[in-house]
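User: I would dearly like some help making sense of a protein record. This is the protein in question:
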Amino acid sequence: MKKEELFALMNSNPAFHLATVEDDQPRVRGMLLYRADENGIIFHTGTMKDVYKQIVKNPKVELCFNDFKNGVQLRVSGSLEIVDDRVLKEEITAHPTRLFLKGWKEDGSMPDFYNELAVFRLCNGTANTWTMDRNFAPKENIIL
């Protein structure tokens, strides 16, 4: 698959699993993509969460997206960077898919909202896909 097709797969299937490491223990949880394009794969969490602490300590992660309709799994590995950009945080908060953030901002659930909302970007990751048809074929890594 080409990079553009991989970004389209991610954006069409925004629920993904994120793998981090805590000490010597892998940790995996579901996350929600904000967007994926040539500028990186962007998602967010709260600074009070364990996942944030794990990423700060070790920014190497793997993301796993699934397109169940077409039988494609996409794994992306790389290092995350924290994006401290208030304009981007405003954009994310105003997006129709993130109305829950606006609620947390306004109801005081996150009293220091802009410092408690952590935005991450993965650039130059390595992606590979899996399908049942290619189950035993060697991996083909694509740099994003």
